[in-house]
Amino acid sequence: MERVLGIGGYFLRAADPVALSAWYRDCLGLEADEHGLWRQEPGPTVFAAFESDTDYFGSRSQRTMLNFRVRDLDAMLAQLRAAGAEVLSGSKVHPCLIGG
Smaller CB count within 10 Å for the chain: N or C? Predict the structure, then answer.
């Protein structure tokens, strides 16, 4: 059986895609080329479906959730706060991914 090898892309609609791409670069260090190609570091990726009425993430109208792997969550959250981003309480490390 043929199998997928990984996530090939995650696409976002934006009123200002250039500014949004710059935010991801400047605040998260996500260096993508002019075509959006980003070479991420190896590591685990969770692919999970949830019941449509889950409260696990966001409001019921939120259809997806994107998580990023980072080396130091506390340092990343401090960096985002320093850049003026609103960091919601409850940001946490998933126990299955510690040391991943």
Answer: N
What is the C-alpha to C-alpha distance for residues 85 and 97, in angstroms, rounded to an integer?
Answer: 24
Instruction: Output the pLDDT for position 65.
Output: 83
Nearest to 45 by CA among 17, 10, 69, 79: 69
Give the 3-state DSSP-derived string for 44-90, with helices as H, strands as E and coil as C: CCCCCCCCCCCCCCCCCCCCCCCCCCCCCHHHHHHHHHHCCCCCCCC
* 91 touches 77 (CB < 8 A): yes
Tokens representing 96? 């299955």
Q: Hey, what's the torsion of the CAs at 52, 12, 33, 93, to 10 degrees?
A: -40
Q: What is the pLDDT of residues 65-93, one digit of tens each?
A: 888 888 888 899 899 999 999 887 765 65
What whole-number distance in Å separates Cα of residue 96 and Cα of residue 89? 20
pTM of the model: 0.73
Instruction: Read off the tokens for 14.
Output: 């934006």
